[in-house]
Structures are given as structure tokens and as C-alpha cells.
UniProtKB/TrEMBL annotation:
InterPro entries: ATP-NAD_kinase_N, Diacylglycerol_kinase_cat_dom, Lipid_Phosphate_FormReg, NAD/diacylglycerol_kinase_sf, YegS/DAGK_C. GO terms for cellular component: plasma membrane. GO terms for molecular function: ATP binding; kinase activity. Residues 7-137 form the DAGKc domain. This is Diacylglycerol kinase family enzyme.
């Protein structure tokens, strides 16, 4: 018998992104249907179109309430469903199908479909913070600078997967010019050049780079994680620290913990930002604020 905090989820909506990942979605739909039927659950489906999905999903949820909504796609689909559910009582589940799947990894959600589907009946409910970055919703990580540029190029290109990301990152690194940032938080002010500026509600990118170690999705604060310009010779050491949970050890990193921040780039009226894996251009200054405990998420049970 599950604890009362985790009621049985009978009607599950799956939001499917037909173009994410390399998996046949017709077969996936049949797998989900069968899995749920065998366990006495009802599965229904909503397909994203790439056009006003947030508005369409909100209308669908208002007309057809369900006990949980699973995002079956990459980080963009997880963030879309998270935004539609934020502030409400219906929890988000994630079936990771994208290239990175950062939010699902941060939550410890299994990366294999049948294992992730276990969360339809065996889960722990988490209530996490979300962010507003320049008025846009973010559940996971947003950034300005180098990674935002790589994500934009990746988005514009046809190739998917971690290999394509690494190839683009290597090409862009050669001529990359760090910008100057002016950052005011509710705690402090910092100004200087930065290779990248990450606005982190969570810990880890889909690439497994740990940009914000030892912080929680539900700690009521976020971090601005700065990587300052570094000489080429320092790159391997820096990467090593980023992959080994040692962000603060490097000479080229610093973190600002806060609840509110304003980020400007002197001389620039707008700036490229990636938010939960999707690139966009935002007017400066970019205002960031936290919405504490605003999203319910199905994570693996503590015993998993
Ligand atoms: N039917 C569709 N046709 C074209 N694009 C779509 C469709 N549905 C969603 N999209 C677009 O897919 C993007 C989100 O993709 P998502 O992040 O879920 O998967 P992915 O890109 O494969 O994963 P990752 O970001 O991990 O590489 C959004 O830009 C969205 O507009």
C-alpha cells in the first residue's frame, strides 16, 4: 500500500513529441498503452506540433483533467509540460527521449522507457522550485554565453545526439569571444568577462557536466554559475572539474546564490539565452526570479 502522499494515478496523459529522439513513436504509444492497461491505468495522448503547444496543452488539460501528465520527449518537451502544470496540483512525469534529458537525469529518473514507466505506479512526489528567466519559464538550467551559442547552432542544424553537440562545441570554441556581464543579485553585484553564465535551479546538464553541485531543485534559491575566461591549456583541467562534481575547485569558476538577479551585457540590447535546451533572444537586462515549490514532479521512490 503506497503512503497517502502518493495516491494511485489512474488516468495518465502522455505528451508525445513526434520528432524527439530516434525512437518510433507509434511503437512507443503501443508500449505505453499496453503497460498502463496491464496495470489498470488509462493512458491518453497529446501530440506536440511545434506550434503553440503550450496554449493547446493548457486548453487540453482544462477540458480533460488527468492524475498526472508525462512528457515523452527531450528537455524542451519536459519544460513545456512543466510550464503547463506549474502552480497546479497535477504532477509531471518524464519519459526521457531526447539527446540530453538533463531534468530527468537530475531527478534520477531512469533513462530507459520501460524503467521510466515504472513511475506511473511507483514514485515519490517531489515539489520543486521553478524559475522565470526574462519572463520565460525554466525548470532546469538556462545560460548565456558559450553553451547558448552551441545550443542555437545545434538547434539550427539537422544532426542530433551528443556527438553533434561536441562537434559544434569544438568548432565554436576556436573563435569564441567572451562577453562582459554585469550581474546584480539580492545578495551581491559582480561584473566581468565570462565564458558562460549559467542560471541553475538544478545540478547537471544533459551532457553530464555538473555545473551546480550539491544544490537542490527545492532549496528556495538558484545559483548563477560563472565560468570566467580561461587559457586553452587550462581547458582539460576545467573540464575534469566539471565532470567530477568539483565546480568550485577551478580557478576560473564562481557561484552566486540568490533568489533574484538582473543580468546585463553592457552595450547589448538583447542577448542569446538557452532555456531548458531551447535557444531564444531576450532583451537586456534579463531579470531572473524563483517561484519556490511551484511544480510537482514524480521522481523515483527513495528505495529505488
Ligand atoms: N510535431 C513537431 N514538429 C516539429 N517540431 C516539433 C514538434 N513538436 C515539438 N517540436 C519542437 O521540438 C522541440 C523540443 O524538442 P525536445 O527538446 O523535446 O526534443 P529533442 O530536441 O530531440 O531533445 P534534446 O533537446 O534533448 O535534443 C521544440 O522546439 C518544439 O517546438
Amino acid at each position: 500500500m503506497p503512503p497517502t502522499a502518493c495516491p494511485t494515478l489512474r488516468h495518465l496523459l502522455f505528451v508525445l513529441n513526434p520528432v524527439s529522439g530516434d525512437i518510433d513513436k507509434t511503437e512507443l504509444e503501443a508500449t505505453i498503452r499496453r503497460y498502463c492497461r496491464e496495470r489498470g491505468r488509462r493512458a491518453t495522448f497529446f501530440h506536440t506540433s511545434g506550434n503553440d503547444d503550450l496554449g493547446r496543452l493548457r486548453s487540453h488539460l482544462a477540458a480533460h483533467p488527468s492524475d498526472a501528465v508525462f512528457a515523452a520527449g527531450g528537455d524542451g518537451t519536459a519544460s513545456l509540460v512543466a510550464e503547463a502544470l506549474a502552480g497546479g496540483a497535477t504532477p509531471l512525469g518524464i519519459i526521457p527521449l531526447g539527446s540530453g534529458n538533463g531534468l530527468s537525469k537530475d531527478l534520477g529518473i531512469p533513462q530507459e522507457v520501460e524503467q521510466a514507466l515504472r513511475l506511473t505506479w511507483d514514485y515519490q512526489l517531489r515539489i520543486v522550485d521553478t524559475l522565470r528567466v526574462g519572463g520565460r519559464f525554466s525548470a532546469h538550467l538556462a545560460d548565456l554565453g558559450f553553451n547558448a551559442l552551441v545550443v542555437e547552432r545545434f538547434d539550427q542544424g539537422g544532426a542530433r545526439g551528443p556527438g553533434a553537440y561536441v562537434r559544434i562545441a569544438t568548432q565554436e570554441y576556436v573563435n569564441y569571444q567572451p562577453a562582459i556581464y554585469h550581474i546584480e543579485t539580492d545578495q551581491q553585484t559582480w561584473e566581468g568577462p565570462a565564458f558562460m553564465v549559467t542560471i541553475a535551479n538544478a545540478n547537471t546538464f544533459g551532457s553530464n557536466v555538473i555545473i551546480n553541485p550539491d544544490r537542490e531543485l527545492d532549496d528556495g534559491q538558484f545559483e548563477i554559475c560563472l565560468i570566467e575566461p580561461f587559457p586553452n591549456l587550462a581547458a582539460p583541467g576545467l573540464l575534469y572539474h566539471l565532470y567530477t562534481n568539483d565546480f568550485d575547485v577551478s580557478d576560473y569558476t564562481r557561484r552566486l546564490s540568490c533568489r533574484r538577479a538582473r543580468i546585463s551585457v553592457p552595450g547589448q540590447a538583447e542577448v542569446l539565452v538557452q532555456i531548458d535546451g531551447e535557444p531564444c533572444r531576450l532583451p537586456t537586462p534579463v531579470e531572473v526570479e524563483i517561484d519556490p515549490r511551484s511544480l510537482r514532479i514524480l521522481g523515483p521512490p527513495a528505495s529505488a
